[in-house]
Design brief:
279 residues, globular, Nucleotidyltransferase, domain 5, RNase H type-1 domain-containing protein, RNaseH-like_sf, two-stranded antiparallel ribbon, seven-stranded mixed beta sheet, alpha/beta, RNA-DNA hybrid ribonuclease activity
Length: 279
């Protein structure tokens, strides 16, 4: 077991963007000249290693259970997220979400994390699927279902990222950086690059841009999608950064999730698909 203690850096390297927007009160863009603290892009120390080889399952004394720890920097850990959607873009779509942050035997009830995962997974209305993994069905949290956004693959993966960042106090565990692994460019680029432009435009697409999905109100179709989830994700990113824990995104090819059937990426994908089907 590694016993590294990660001291806070003198300054946390954070990219910021000042945006000018007049959005609704209480949301991102609610004040003129707001500073958005962007997540960063993760650049692997060895790009020949798979995510699982770069962040093998390890134990550190400051964490209650095994984590996916950077073999080159014991102060960094990985969160693998996955999302699926049955009938994506069609009638009555149903989404499933999952994330993996550790590892171990699925029936290892003696591990402190096993019990904590069962308890804390309730934060997402989900359930623990082995040690260091949680899956949940993507359910609308809107009190008025007809006005709720439909489930999509994008919303499933955004929701998985939010839940993964929230299930533990990662800064409190002593991590200086958490790396979110995803195969979705929309998520990786949105969190590290595109968000300030969306906020600056008050979430409205520029004239001439392709409208969104048919069926919604015209004004909704001309807005960037999933604002509710983006604001929730950004709020959590900034909370962690304020506590000294950098959030980075590592976009991988979708084939990485199928390359190793016993690996953590495949585990996350299977869990999301199972949650989607409700079994």
């Amino acid at each position: 077991m590694a016993s590294s203690t990660c001291a806070l850096p003198v300054t946390l390297p954070i990219r910021t963007k000042r945006v000018v927007s007049t959005g609704e009160k209480g949301n991102i863009g609610s004040s003129r000249g707001r500073i958005i603290r962007l997540a960063t892009v993760f650049h692997p120390q060895n790009d020949r290693l798979s995510p699982e080889a770069h962040f093998p399952v390890s134990r550190v004394q400051r964490a209650s259970g095994p984590r996916l720890v950077n073999r080159f920097n014991r102060c960094e850990m990985m969160l693998v997220i996955a999302g699926s959607c049955l009938r994506n873009g069609g009638y009555a779509p149903v989404g499933g979400c999952a994330f993996v942050f550790g590892g171990g035997d699925d029936d290892d009830d003696d591990d402190d994390d096993a019990g904590r995962d069962r308890d804390e997974s309730r934060k997402t209305d989900g359930h623990a699927v082995g040690v260091g993994a949680v899956a949940f069905r993507l359910e609308s949290r809107d009190a008025d279902p007809p006005s709720s956004p439909e489930d999509t693959c994008n919303r499933a993966k955004l929701s998985a990222a939010i839940a993964a960042l929230r299930i533990r106090d990662w800064a409190g565990e002593g991590w200086r950086r958490v790396v979110v692994v995803t195969d979705l460019e929309y998520l990786a680029k949105g969190a590290t690059e595109w968000l300030p432009n969306w906020v600056r435009s008050n979430w409205r697409k520029p004239p001439g841009a392709k409208p969104g999905k048919k069926g919604g109100r015209d004004d909704e179709r001309r807005c960037y999608l999933n604002r509710d989830l983006w604001e929730e994700l950004q709020a959590r990113i900034e909370e962690l950064m304020a506590a000294g824990c950098e959030v980075s995104f590592w976009q991988v090819n979708g084939e990485e999730y199928d390359r190793n059937d016993q690996g953590v990426l495949a585990r996350a994908k299977r869990a999301a698909q199972t949650a989607m089907r409700g079994s």
